[in-house]
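Regression check, magnesium ion case 182:
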Amino acid sequence: MREKMPYEEDQLKILFTPEQIEEKISELGKIISDHYAGRELIMIGVLRGSTYFLIDLTRKMHIPFAIDFISISHYSEQADSTGVVRITKDLDLNITGKDVLIVEGIVDTGLSLGYLLRNLKTRNPASLKVCTLLNVEARRIVDVPVEYKGFDIANIFVVGYGLDYNERYRNLQFIAEFNRPK
Ligand code: 5GP
Ligand code: MG
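Current build output:
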């Protein structure tokens, strides 16, 4: 039986258990390792929602790679933003000529990822692909190619396993639907 967190209210409805998440990440780790064997892979975590996923994913991999992080912010934090984004923390590594895999926690409208892909492409990586744990196809505004994905989910708001609501809930070991207060 899972331990109850003190802040676990009835606003949370579990979608994926820690066991389901681990199993999925093991599969992804193996597939990605096979695809990038013998290449010069740089895994880029998009801060901050992807951090738990990125770390656990890399622990399931059996090839060499580098890790870096990038952070982007949305000018508008409204539910349906205009999609205006900018980089608030850039990469430390030079990705030119390298095989780059962007690791996201969730791809929703695709606006953030669309921007990231355009930006990173100008640095001429050998290849540029995307891995996301959660994918919300129904919300897509920008058509972004997602090579590796964990789970497809409906148009709901989720927290846990790195994903937050006002910076809370990231450390939940499961992923849950969250009913945001009105
Ligand atoms: P997009 O640009 O694809 O609409 O949104 C990507 C970003 O929005 C994600 O990296 C994440 O930070 C945030 N986001 C989108 N949907 C959700 C959600 O259901 N829960 C949480 N916690 N964040 C989300
Ligand atoms: Mg984010």
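Comparison notes: The mean pLDDT is 92. The two ends are 32 Å apart (CA to CA). No diff flagged against the previous build.
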